[in-house]
Fold PaaI family thioesterase.
Amino acid sequence: MCMNNIQERATSFLSVLRHCQVLGMTVEQADERGLIIRLPYSPAIVGNPVSGVVHGGAITTLMDTCCGISTVCYLPEFEICPTLDLRIDYMHPAEPGKAIYGFAECYRITPTVIFTRGVAYQDDREQPIAHVVGTFMRMGKPDAKGQLSRKIDGETQ
């Protein structure tokens, strides 16, 4: 699969997720090595208004989305892959006022489950805010009438 096609598929996938639109998430990089999504800092994701620290739920949303969309970096065609399990270990709070990046990769693909891992970080991926591992159920391709898969795979009606 062409790297540009992976980036386009990941961006298309993200664009159909309403919560990602509301949070302003963008695909920064997507290729055969994995996916990076940017979550901009905003007052809407602050958990502590006194300190400005981002709510853990926003980071969880970023990482669940990042792990889920990373499947398009590895699968030849879009498949429905809902989250089975997601574990996040928080290392330290995000620095207020700065964007947060999520990186995820698939490290094992079976006929029924995809295994992912990644990190949330700000300036340096080697200094993560959080580590994540997630599993996603492979439910196969949607039926031919599925608008979501056509949009993600770049097909027109």
